[in-house]
Design goal:
Two copies of one chain form a homodimer.
Chain A lengths: L2 H16 L4 H17 L1 H18 L3 H7 L3 H16 L7 E6 L5 E8 L2 E6 L3 H13 L3 E5 L5 H16 L8 E3 L5 H7 L8 E5 L2 H10 L12 E5 L5 H13 L8 E7 L3 H14 L3 E4 L1 H6 L4 E2 L2 H4 L7 E7 L2 H11 L4 E5 L3 H10 L4 E6 L6 H4 L7 E2 L7 E2 L6 E12 L3
Parallel strand pairs in A: 3-4, 3-6, 4-5, 7-8, 7-12, 8-11, 9-10, 9-11, 12-13
Antiparallel strand pairs in A: 1-2, 2-16, 14-15
Helix pairs in contact in A: 2-5, 2-7, 3-7, 5-6, 6-7, 10-11
Chain lengths: 415, 415
Amino acid sequence: MSELIEKAKNVKAASYLLANLSSTVKNDGLAKMAELLLENEELILTANRKDVENYQIKNNNKALIDRLTLTPKRIKEMADSLYTLISLPDPIGEVLSMWKRPNGLTIGQKRVPIGVIGIIYEARPNVTVDAAGLCLKSGNAVLLKGGSEAIHSNSAIIGVLKEAFRSSGIPEGAVELIESTNRETTLEMMKLNQYIDVLIPRGGAGLIQTVVQHATVPVIETGTGNCHVYVCEDADIEMAENIIVNAKTSRPAVCNAAETLLVDERIAERFLPHAIEILRNKGVEIRGCEKVQAIVSDVTTATEEDWSTEYLDYILAVKVVRNIDEAIAHINQYGTGHSEAIITSGYDHSQKFLQEVDAAAVYVNASTRFTDGAEFGFGAEIGISNQKLHARGPVGLKELTTVKYIIFGNGQIRE
Amino acid sequence: MSELIEKAKNVKAASYLLANLSSTVKNDGLAKMAELLLENEELILTANRKDVENYQIKNNNKALIDRLTLTPKRIKEMADSLYTLISLPDPIGEVLSMWKRPNGLTIGQKRVPIGVIGIIYEARPNVTVDAAGLCLKSGNAVLLKGGSEAIHSNSAIIGVLKEAFRSSGIPEGAVELIESTNRETTLEMMKLNQYIDVLIPRGGAGLIQTVVQHATVPVIETGTGNCHVYVCEDADIEMAENIIVNAKTSRPAVCNAAETLLVDERIAERFLPHAIEILRNKGVEIRGCEKVQAIVSDVTTATEEDWSTEYLDYILAVKVVRNIDEAIAHINQYGTGHSEAIITSGYDHSQKFLQEVDAAAVYVNASTRFTDGAEFGFGAEIGISNQKLHARGPVGLKELTTVKYIIFGNGQIRE
């Protein structure tokens, strides 16, 4: 039996046991995970140094090295994220509703774990801990396939987590890491419908699209955010400036950062010159439509491609629109359905935007940067879904559950 | 532009308008659909006769001919199903919860349509009306691909539905039928992530598996039901007999019919001889394990394959199990996660079964046949999902929706 199938079977078997664990056992397990991660800091850092050195021999992608590298501070953050999970309510077992039918059957809809979650991710060892923690708290078993660059770090971490499980009465198969680093194994994992209930890719657009294209296991697609801020004709100009600066520059590399600014033509001349100046002072490159260029002459031309690009960088596309209808149409055409904001003082404009924009999170007078599990008050999350099936927006503990109908009869048969 | 892309674009464009229709407009549209279907009965029946005749020239699958053939009674039933939809509450616009964050942001979770639903189905013209009605009521646009055998019937029905939409202020693109009957078009449709938000295959296991294997659009998998009835050691024998007879024979061809009977060894000798006699009198072929054969000598041997087979026929696999643990393990191994029942008088047994069986619907002392939108009190449904993502159990109006976060700020930016 291949490593993949053997581990998939372990995880599947463990999933039935996990579904029945009490909150106390799960929380004790999370605490033990945190404790042992801190205790084994040196072991984990040693393994991580091996990964970083191996990577650096042949490559020099600084962003990747940064994501790959662990430090005592990062290990402390991993442990902290587990303590946060302990403090969150256990989603499992809640009966969402229960009703009685005319024939006497009582039907309840109960929240239960999904079962087995497969996570395919890049060279970020912290995801190993995040995913294991979220899945344990939500009663799911998890099969992990991390980036090959992080294999030693991940193996060391998984060893520690399994030790925590052993000493907490949690089945060890609750988490398994696929150590094989060949691409065929990953592709095979995407088609293991027999063992895996849902796949969640975590990483860049390339990884996510590979999973969407090849998986037969249902996928929760996360992360692509081509987000817009629309400055309506009646916007408070100072508020609009603050919000676009925040949405673009507070953390450009994340999915809830703004990529395009839309400005109503009735406010463009008053708003754009100063807004562009502030953005440029923050290091943002502006690419604009002709109307933008007519107002601020030295702006580069935005092409059709710019409207659909998630820069994840200090670049902002800017377009002047005739009215709110054009703004909404632009967003619905080019956006990825992630986070969209309007800045307005008009009631009708706010209502129209909230109603007609098709996205996971639609904001009035706030930065798109708030689309995040912690900011929404959900605590931890495994990503932001911008698909419509199952989970839309932050994927937290509740979104890692499904329902089961429980039906209480006393001999009912159907006529 | 191909027919597929052109119609997919129409449907996508219509979906934005549909999301904003009031319940009144949608209900008026449903009434008009029903009215015009009845008025155009002759036109539809004529088209249907052409389909049936074309099919009969080369084939003689009686079940297919039965499903394909329309009658005045069936058209009346289609119209009635639309009137049922009018009577159901509109799921759209409900704000499921709304809360305020420490920074003053107010966040609401609002129920909205999914957008565009693609339905791939077999030669059942009634699905054309069911799907169009459910999607309209839930604010979704729908792209239909029906079985080629029903093409004239479906075209006639769609013509009538579009006329109803025109006269009700509903965009005509709210429903489109792909008339091309080649397989490549269907495969292409399964990968139209740009235009289609979810695919729902309706039909046999072969169709569903084809969609699961080839689709990149998220799929709601419906319909495969290898359902079990477990007669516990402490069951009321008469109740158990009534339930297994009902679960197996009231409608063997549907997904919530029982396929395997599990009997505790402590009750097997008292229960099996009479139960098997009744089942056989109803025309059921029994295939049993060795222990069953030891009790009722002329039972055919059940093979490993029998335990995983959805017969959809007058055949029942029967297995004697040591205890409830073996019953639950058997169900979780061989079942398809659809509908599972225990017959017991024991509190602990009922609780254990409800907790540990991993299925969409778990019954105590009732027939598996109740897993159905109408029986659950949801009204209409488009199928029974036995996947865990998004919808599990009957897929009714609520399951054809997603959520959108609406966020009310007054200038908040993220630190």
